[in-house]
């Protein structure tokens, strides 16, 4: 609680005894969709009335005054203080006006209806009530209101409100565009302490520390609040929640793939006095931001963009480089990530247009990639602006447009330092943009909300418009199709722990035979598109006959890739073909390979009733003929487990199993999810989940539904 609210409460303790105020927490919180947080204190949503019952020996219902104040230096001019009364003349005439009316009364009790305006600042308030010589001071918390038509975050569909505001569990998509994996995530935005942590996050943001009255005043605006949250999830400029780490060194912290709950991260941040939690990567940053926005009342969903470009020089082109020995340099300035995860928040954008054109989903990216106005933050960027190539619109639209629709140019770097353009690709960047579907665990493809069909006249026209608005230049011409096409494909499902069979398909459109030198290589990749280790290479000559297709099979041994594989399980297989008679004729084929990991088993037993005992069992079996070191299992789930449970770390022999068995009592009613995570030195980031529909203790019928 702020010093302002403490002083108000302290000063009113003597008078408070003269009047009792029933905050009707159960009734009000239920009506305001906040009872999942708590029923012990008043939490309301703006633009919606709530009721109070006043009782005292003598009450004058014609002379009741209510004052609501938030933040230090609260004042009417900044919209952080408002007084309302049953006597109209005593109500605030400026700022964000609250209102009150009498519903019914008796000589010793009055029931009031208090309306918090739809543009009120969100946060913790003191609520002072006075009637004659009687007074009382309480506190309440005000949140954004997606149910209120006049709130900028109003979301018309109830099904979408249940998904994007009320759902405490979700799914995050990872992997590569040809092999998308999903992980269950525990957002836990209604765990009771999470709201206070989210408000603390706002209070320690640099803008608040510099000018608290101005910052509190701006908290009426979801555009401002969401941009602040975007900056505060990462710790690069401030006392943010998460420290990013991408170089593979995670000493002194938690491997990003080990996280499966925002609650654990936020609690650790507040426990250690707002010091950053180690470590996060893009999906962790996004999932935590989703928790914070949903908690504050801004509808939010997690979005994954596959083949996501990072355009550092903001020209909507990414340049990638290969050495003439067939592998990528260790780091490119530009890069194409296997995937990148951000969030979308739902809100109006009257700051951009008066015709609602840019209203709706807005991209917000808390992963620290580029500084904007000196701060690592991104958004809100209207998805509609990205779709139409309006790259001159706030905020950071060019960066987001590049992520989903940049052109990619591939260069071959010779031993003498010279470079040769070998491929220009207008279609690869921005694939299968994905989010969890409303009301189910299926994947929804929302690529068409970000860009028009690849290769269509409309898509290229939008790209040209985006380039013109960013650089003032015209789009460069697409090169002619080469007379040899190469493609790498899998020959069967790749299994982590076994050799991987692949094949190279070559197709010639030439009228003459060509002798090619093929430089084949495999690199273990970070998901950010940068190589972590070279694991295999092979060179061969091949005679390609005119106007024919030819297939060349090859194998990537587990002994080559297994010891170097990272937690994202991604391998980049590349083939560079050079015409021996024409060294300038160079051809390229690439393939992202994700070996499939073994499965994790999760089962539950017991009747799914609130406060009734249940048991969860998580089992992993080592499928390899070798021992697995540093094996452990974690289990989490809001509404089910009060804290994350973890097994001991063990070595697991061939064919042996590790088991985590947890007894628990569900403490919240409704659809809940247990999320399990297995990690070892060899197999990392193996997750599974089970759905549990918890019923009130008075009901004795029902069943469990399981989800993997």
From TrEMBL:
<keyword id="KW-0547">Nucleotide-binding</keyword>
<dbReference type="GO" id="GO:0050568">
    <property type="term" value="F:protein-glutamine glutaminase activity"/>
</dbReference>
<keyword id="KW-0496">Mitochondrion</keyword>
<dbReference type="GO" id="GO:0005634">
    <property type="term" value="C:nucleus"/>
</dbReference>
<keyword id="KW-0479">Metal-binding</keyword>
<feature type="active site">
    <location>
        <position position="282"/>
    </location>
</feature>
<dbReference type="InterPro" id="IPR036985">
    <property type="entry name" value="Transglutaminase-like_sf"/>
</dbReference>
<dbReference type="InterPro" id="IPR008958">
    <property type="entry name" value="Transglutaminase_C"/>
</dbReference>
<dbReference type="GO" id="GO:0005829">
    <property type="term" value="C:cytosol"/>
</dbReference>
<feature type="active site">
    <location>
        <position position="365"/>
    </location>
</feature>
<feature type="binding site">
    <location>
        <position position="407"/>
    </location>
    <ligand>
        <name>Ca(2+)</name>
    </ligand>
</feature>
<feature type="binding site">
    <location>
        <position position="454"/>
    </location>
    <ligand>
        <name>Ca(2+)</name>
    </ligand>
</feature>
<keyword id="KW-1003">Cell membrane</keyword>
<feature type="domain" description="Transglutaminase-like">
    <location>
        <begin position="274"/>
        <end position="368"/>
    </location>
</feature>
<dbReference type="InterPro" id="IPR014756">
    <property type="entry name" value="Ig_E-set"/>
</dbReference>
<dbReference type="InterPro" id="IPR013783">
    <property type="entry name" value="Ig-like_fold"/>
</dbReference>
<dbReference type="Pfam" id="PF01841">
    <property type="entry name" value="Transglut_core"/>
</dbReference>
<keyword id="KW-0012">Acyltransferase</keyword>
<dbReference type="Pfam" id="PF00868">
    <property type="entry name" value="Transglut_N"/>
</dbReference>
<dbReference type="InterPro" id="IPR001102">
    <property type="entry name" value="Transglutaminase_N"/>
</dbReference>
<keyword id="KW-0963">Cytoplasm</keyword>
<dbReference type="InterPro" id="IPR023608">
    <property type="entry name" value="Transglutaminase_animal"/>
</dbReference>
<dbReference type="GO" id="GO:0046872">
    <property type="term" value="F:metal ion binding"/>
</dbReference>
<dbReference type="InterPro" id="IPR002931">
    <property type="entry name" value="Transglutaminase-like"/>
</dbReference>
<dbReference type="GO" id="GO:0005886">
    <property type="term" value="C:plasma membrane"/>
</dbReference>
<dbReference type="GO" id="GO:0007399">
    <property type="term" value="P:nervous system development"/>
</dbReference>
<dbReference type="GO" id="GO:0005525">
    <property type="term" value="F:GTP binding"/>
</dbReference>
<dbReference type="Pfam" id="PF00927">
    <property type="entry name" value="Transglut_C"/>
</dbReference>
<dbReference type="InterPro" id="IPR036238">
    <property type="entry name" value="Transglutaminase_C_sf"/>
</dbReference>
<keyword id="KW-0106">Calcium</keyword>
<protein>
    <recommendedName>
        <fullName>Protein-glutamine gamma-glutamyltransferase 2</fullName>
        <ecNumber>2.3.2.13</ecNumber>
        <ecNumber>3.5.1.44</ecNumber>
    </recommendedName>
</protein>
<dbReference type="InterPro" id="IPR013808">
    <property type="entry name" value="Transglutaminase_AS"/>
</dbReference>
<dbReference type="GO" id="GO:0003810">
    <property type="term" value="F:protein-glutamine gamma-glutamyltransferase activity"/>
</dbReference>
<keyword id="KW-0342">GTP-binding</keyword>
<keyword id="KW-0158">Chromosome</keyword>
<feature type="binding site">
    <location>
        <position position="459"/>
    </location>
    <ligand>
        <name>Ca(2+)</name>
    </ligand>
</feature>
<comment type="similarity">
    <text>Belongs to the transglutaminase superfamily. Transglutaminase family.</text>
</comment>
<dbReference type="GO" id="GO:0005694">
    <property type="term" value="C:chromosome"/>
</dbReference>
<keyword id="KW-0964">Secreted</keyword>
<dbReference type="InterPro" id="IPR050779">
    <property type="entry name" value="Transglutaminase"/>
</dbReference>
<feature type="active site">
    <location>
        <position position="340"/>
    </location>
</feature>
<dbReference type="GO" id="GO:0008233">
    <property type="term" value="F:peptidase activity"/>
</dbReference>
